[in-house]
UniProtKB/TrEMBL annotation:
This is DUF1080 domain-containing protein. InterPro entries: AL/BT2_dom. Residues 25-203 form the 3-keto-alpha-glucoside-1,2-lyase/3-keto-2-hydroxy-glucal hydratase domain. GO terms for molecular function: hydrolase activity. The lineage of its organism: Bacteria, Pseudomonadati, Verrucomicrobiota, Verrucomicrobiia, Verrucomicrobiales.
Amino acid sequence: MSNIIAILLSTSLGLGHLFAEDPDKQKEKWVHLTQCVTEGNWKVNDEGIIQLQPRHGEQGWKRYGSYLWLRQSYADFICRFEYLHPKGGNSGFYFRVKDKNNPVETGIEIQILDSFGKKGKLTHHDCGGVIFTQGPAKNMSKPANQWNQMTVRCVKSHLQVWLNGEKIQDLQLDKTELNNRPLNGHIGFQDHGLPMQLRNISIQEVSKP
């Protein structure tokens, strides 16, 4: 039986900043996430922050629980959230996942990783990279144990990602190796067997023209 996690959201999420990134959608109505579903180790603390705290012996790639999933499926959307991880943190934002039991092969992942301070060429495995396609345009990761803010906008095949106020991805998915992925599916956060915190999650469906 899945656990239902209530997420406490502020009524003022600084949406003006997000709309500045996407001015053509200012009149869209935002639907704030109120619940998620998980069978894993995600819990809500007294401050309303969602925490992933792996059980003893679950460190590393091996996973014993499930991802944190939004209850509704989405096609075209804008999702905004904040995340925090300790040094060495590793997770991922998944969207348009067809099969929640196989998100890697049936969905799209944006990497969440402790990439702060990395020099040189960034790959799709660095923070903000789109797995199997390309790395972020720049390294905008904050140091471990600081809150990062990510915004993901995907309309049809056009994917854009902002990290801490800077655009780091702008690509057409139908021109990549992910051109066979579904155009509608589940949205979730990866359980990579490492501690992770989330807050201020909000999502907006984008109306098709």
